[in-house]
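Bumping with the actual sequence this time:
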Amino acid sequence: MPRLLKVVVGVAALGVLAVLFVRSAQSSRETPFPVERGRLAGWTLVVHPDTDALGSWLALSPPVSLAPSLGREIFRRAGESVNYPSPPLMPLLLQTEFDRAFAGVVMPDDIVSLARSAGLESTAFTPRCMGRRRVSEPGATRGVYFLLFDAPAFTRFRQQLLERLGSARGNASLFDPAALSPVLIVAALDGDFGRWMPLRADPDVDCLAPIEVQ
C-alpha cells in the first residue's frame, strides 16, 4: 500500500505540473507584445534591396528599432534559438512576381509610383497580431515569427498592380494580389527566410498573441 500510494502521489504531481505548464504556455501566448506607437510610422520604400533574404523586388523598411525589440521578446518568451533577418523588411512585390508577370510589361518606375500613391510611405501601420507558423519535416522543424498588419494601403497597392498589369496587356493570371500578406518577419528557427515567401497569413490560424500599442 505505501508503494502504491507513492505511485499515485507521483502521478498526481506530474499531472499538476503538466497543467501548470500548459497554463503558463497559454498565458505567454495571450500576453500582448508591446509596440511603441512611434515605431509604426516612418517606413521607407526600398527598390531591389541588396541584402534582402526574403527575395523582394520592392519592400518597406521599418524604423530600425521595431524588429529587434520584438525579436528579443520572442527569444525571452519562447526560449528558442532564433535567427533575425538583416535588414528586416516588409515585402511589397517579390522578385519572382516581378520576373513572372511585370518584367518587360510594366515600367519599374510606374510600380514605385503606385506604391507611393497608395500611401505606403505616409501611413502608420496597424499591427494585428504576432504570428507564428511551423512546419514539421523529417529530422527538423521549421518555424517563423512575423508581425501581421491591417494595412489597407498594402492591399490597395497590390490590387493596383493587378489593374496596371491588365491595362498594359499583361497576363493578369500570373499575379495574385492576395498571395502576399502585409507581414514583417521578425525571427525564424533557421536563416532561410526566403522559404516562407510568399507568406499568406491566416489570422485565425497564425496569430500567436495580440499587440499592445503603447
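The C-alpha cells above came from a reply further down the thread. The first helix runs from residue 2 to 30.
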